Amino acid sequence: MVKGFLVVLAVGAFVLSGCGNEQSRKAEEAYQKAVEMRRGSDSPEEKLAITKKFLDEFPESDHTAGMLSAAVYYQGEELGDTVGAVAYAETIRNQVDDPQIEMAVDKEMVNIYGETGMVPKMLAVADRLSAAGALGFRDHWNIIGSAIKAENWALAREYCEKAEGLVNADSYRADNADQKFTNVEIEQGVRNREGMLLVKNAWARANQGEVDAALADFAKADGLVERSYIDTPAHGLDLYWGKVLLLKGDYQSAESKLATAGLVTRNEEALAGLKKAYVGMKGSDSGFDVYSAELHRSVAKIVEDFELSDYEGERHRLSKLRGDVTLLAFWFPT
Amino acid sequence: MELPRLETLWQTYREKGLSVVAVEAARDRDRARKFITEKNLTFHLLENDKKEDVVGEKFKVDSFPTSLLIDRDGRIMYYHVGFQKGDEAELEREILDLGQK
Predict the structure, then answer these.
(1) Cα A133 to Cα A143: distance, rounded to the nearest angstrom
(2) Fewest CB atoms within 10 A around its CB: which of A174, A231, B15, B98?
(3) Any A CB within 8 A of B77 CB
(4) Which uninterrupted H or E stretch holds A295?
(5) Are residues A229 and B45, on separate chains, in Cβ contact within 8 Å?
(6) A1 at the B interface (CB within 8 A)?
(7) Which of residues 1-20 of B touch A (CB under 8 A)?
(8) Which whole number is the average pLDDT over A127-141?
(9) How far apart are CA A65 and CA A84, in angstroms?
(10) Is some CB atom of chain B closer than 8 A to the CB atom of A264?
(11) What is the pLDDT of residues A50-92, one digit of tens each?
(12) Does the beta carbon of B96 lie under 8 angstroms from any beta carbon of chain A?
């Protein structure tokens, strides 16, 4: 959920808008300044104030949607004031007249209403955009996610079906116009999209009682979705798959799907599912701690070694830097 | 930003065998250096390679920060993407937990 907002933030920082007139030049300058100021701040209150100051001054610019997303993230997610965040978004939305900016902001409103569980409001905006052919794959994806969160399975399936029409190279290329992807990368991206829709659709189907069909779809999605370094499939495939296997009473298979997510990425739902699988196999949860510690070690991937330079130009191998416990962090200066 | 918090963790647990290695993904040397100096970071700081994209290609990392905890035998026992409220406490718990094994 947070990731979506952060992605928008990151993209917003890189998109430089065209500066057609004096007003948009001023907006661009103010935007750059706001982003720079936010970088220097560690406080969500301050970041929110900086973002709102920009929006109040320039409610209509190429950055309205992105900054609105950021404001809602700081106020709703970080400061816990969801109601205030949505109300603020609505006041900004009502100040927008330019059709293009309005469309971008409405897409953001779909996201905001969806994330906050306001499904009827989300659908009202989404249907209007959909009728205008303005919803891209990512918009569909956001709606599917919100429908699943609201346990509205029929709606999730409806938008999965709609989104299938956008699973192709042209649509993928258009959605990533700012990136120089190779044909192979585009193929991978399209395959991943096909897989991610299958995952969500299968989960919705399972919740509507179509368990066997869902299991078949999970198996199909397994060959399509991207995988992390520790081999967990993207989009929660292992978690959903494991949960449906539990429903089937196939505890052994459920264990294999849930182990890494539950023990290595520490997903609480997956860990709870793992315990259920254990109880299913053994009859009680006695001995679960010893069992899970052993399973944890056995599923943990062994890290590959690498060599990189420090800022003095000296080369270091990870294996030489490791201690009893090593924290390896990948970061991005912002 | 999470890196200054890693400094605190490192200072707290280095005597007990914790090692901290941070790899900067963007190859944005100027910004990275400025940040490192400003925040006075002293653990191992490496930069992603131009020739070999360790972060993206080898570790398939595209969301930041991504953190891994590795035990003394090289097993990745903890893998976490992002940094939200509460993550710091979880990370510290996992470090302590792993240190006892």
Answers:
(1) 15
(2) B15
(3) yes
(4) helix A288-299
(5) no
(6) no
(7) 1-3, 6, 9-10, 13, 16-20
(8) 92
(9) 17
(10) yes
(11) 999 999 999 999 999 999 999 999 999 999 999 999 999 999 9
(12) no
Average pLDDT for A6-26: 56
Q: Is the ipTM above a cut-off of 0.95?
A: yes
What are the residues facing A309 on neighbouring strands?
A315, B47
- Residue from A263, A267, A325 nearest B95 by CA: A325
Q: Which residues of B touch A6 (CB under 8 A)?
A: 63, 82
CA–CA separation, A269 and B7 (whole Å): 31
Percent above pLDDT 90 for chain A: 87
* Exposed e or buried b per residue across A293-321, where buried means at least 16 C-beta atoms within 10 angstroms of its C-beta: eebbeebbbebeebebeeeeeeebebeeb
Tokens of A102: 């309005």
Model pTM score: 0.85
The C-alpha atoms of residue A72 and residue A275 are separated, in whole angstroms, by 36
- What's the pLDDT at A215? 98
pLDDT of A20: 55
Q: Is the pLDDT reported for residue A262 higher than 60?
A: yes
Inter-chain touch B79–A265, beta carbons under 8 Å? yes
Number of Cα atoms under 13 Å in the Cβ half of residue A306: 23
**Selected residues 37-66 of chain B with any CB under 8 Å from a CB in chain A:** 44-49, 52, 54-55, 58-61, 63-66
Distance (Å) from the alpha carbon of A333 to chain B's nearest alpha carbon: 6
